[in-house]
Write a structure and sequence with these properties.
- Pfam families: TctC.
- Belongs to the UPF0065 (bug) family.
- The protein has 326 residues and is α/β, with parallel strands linked by helices.
- It folds into 2 domains: 190 residues, D-Maltodextrin-Binding Protein, domain 2, CATH 3.40.190; 99 residues, D-Maltodextrin-Binding Protein, domain 2.
- 40% of the residues lie in helices and 20% in strands.
- It contains 12 helices and 10 strands.
- Strands 1, 2, 3, 4, 5, 6, 7, 8, 9 and 10 form a 10-stranded mixed sheet that branches.
Length: 326
């Protein structure tokens, strides 16, 4: 798949990684061994790629290896549980997307509580979700897709990065708002979900535009609308959902770093400081812009407030749409 490509040199070199000294709030002796960043999806998606671009810069700042590990499955639950069960010393971190919240809401047996067991550290980026279709589907607007789907109930299916994830929520909100019957197909990450879209195995997808932008520009997928408040600068001809008549679909996907609850505050602050420094470099800003993403910039306090607020918001959406996993 050509989407969301980065060069080997960019990944290994961290976009020109240089030593990035922090503000000096480090816990004495931390880190004293390699730091692992756990990602709950297969390689190639936005959570994975942002983590891999961030890792070399943190490694330069900390003087210890920073290793990204993929533990895909259960829409990130497996990865999150492994971090929650790790020592709260800052040597095991989680780089997660908004699905961290939605999966915890809809899965009935999640073995952790997001607000109790995790410490939000830093929001790294955000990106709108897009409604995408295969080019062979004879629709070019949201209205045309709605008419097509209503004439063919249960014939269409839409792919997402996983059951209970942000794409799944967007799809179910869309179905409720449009009164259409489109079947959900869950994958183990954004990359395979989009691979089947461009292969024509599914005709519709709800996906973060971080991964889908290149495919849309190359004509391998068609974007009908995006969830951002304004049109994307990279795709000025693609309307927002609000412009298309569906203002309830207006939430972007965010990505962020988390640590086990109880991680010392000086370590949390050090990680947030160094992540903020890394993400403010011109190279990283350029990369995020090219991938239809915005830098996050929220540290521990504001990020926790956002997580708490959105847990309430997405729980209400789950109740209204009936999303629930066993």
């Amino acid at each position: 798949m050509k989407g969301f490509q980065i060069s080997r040199r960019a990944v290994l070199g961290g976009l020109g990684a240089v030593a990035l000294p922090s503000a000096g709030r480090a816990q004495p002796g931390w880190p004293d061994r390699p730091v692992r960043i756990i990602v709950g999806f297969v390689p190639g998606g936005p959570s994975d790629t942002i983590a891999r671009l961030l890792a070399p810069k943190l490694q330069a700042a900390w003087g210890q290896p920073v290793i990204v590990e993929n533990r895909a499955g259960a829409d990130g639950v497996i990865a999150t549980e492994s971090v929650v069960r790790s020592p709260a010393d800052g040597h095991v971190l989680l780089h997660a997307a908004m699905n961290l919240l939605t999966s915890a809401i809809v899965h009935t047996n999640v073995p952790y509580d997001v607000l109790r067991d995790l410490t939000p550290i830093y929001q790294t980026a955000s990106s709108p979700t897009g409604l995408l279709v295969h080019p062979s589907l004879p629709v070019r607007t949201v209205a045309e897709l709605v008419a097509y789907a209503k004439a063919r109930p249960h014939e269409l299916s839409y792919s997402t990065s996983g059951a209970g994830g942000s794409g799944h929520f967007a799809g179910e909100i869309f179905k409720a708002a449009t009164k259409t019957e489109i079947e959900h197909v869950a994958y183990r990450g954004t990359a395979p979900a989009l691979q089947d879209l461009i292969a024509g195995q599914v005709k519709v997808s709800f996906s973060t535009m971080t991964t889908a932008l290149v495919m849309v520009k190359e004509g391998r997928a068609r974007a009908l609308a995006v969830t951002s408040e304004q049109r994307m600068a990279q795709l000025p001809d693609v309307p927002t959902f609000t412009e298309s008549g569906y203002p309830t679909l207006n939430a972007s996907v965010w990505y962020g770093l988390f640590a086990p609850s109880g991680t010392p505050r000086p370590v949390v602050d050090r990680i947030a400081d160094d992540a903020d420094t890394a993400l403010k470099t011109p190279e990283f800003r350029r990369f995020l812009d090219e991938q239809a993403s915005l830098p996050g910039g929220k540290g521990p306090g504001p990020f926790r407030q956002q997580v708490e607020r959105e847990m309430t918001q997405w729980r209400r959406v789950a109740e209204e749409t009936g999303i629930r996993m066993e």
